[in-house]
Design goal:
single chain, mainly alpha, 90% helix
């Protein structure tokens, strides 16, 4: 995999060199002085290099997708655990309330005169 990345980096470098030459040629055809044309091309290279650092590649997106899939799986597992805990607490509360109501009913039945 590192070989393919190196070959991609090499091809990007050759593309930039071709773009440099083409840009210089276009600027010189437009009667831009050579020194100014080189300065413009260098400014363009700086902008492209800055953009390359901020742009995401397909590989970056694939890595991000895999990380998000893992995080979503972890989140679903945690949510399932919380939901089952919530159901368990709800039934425990219902059982407690039923016991209290039965106790109150027993008290009234046992201690009230008939």
């Amino acid at each position: 995999m590192s070989r393919s990345i190196e070959s991609q980096a090499g091809s990007v470098g050759s593309i930039l060199t071709a773009v440099q030459a083409a840009s210089l040629e276009i600027l010189e055809k437009a009667d831009v002085p050579p020194a100014q044309a080189r300065a413009i091309v260098q400014a363009m290279e700086i902008q492209i290099a800055g953009a390359r650092d901020t742009l995401a590649t397909k590989h970056d997106l694939l890595v991000l997708r895999n990380e998000l899939s893992e995080k979503i799986g972890d989140l679903r597992t945690e949510m399932h655990g919380l939901a089952s805990s919530n159901v368990r607490q709800r039934y425990a509360a219902m059982l407690g309330q039923t016991a209290v109501l039965l106790g109150i009913a027993y008290f009234f039945v046992a201690h009230l005169p008939r």
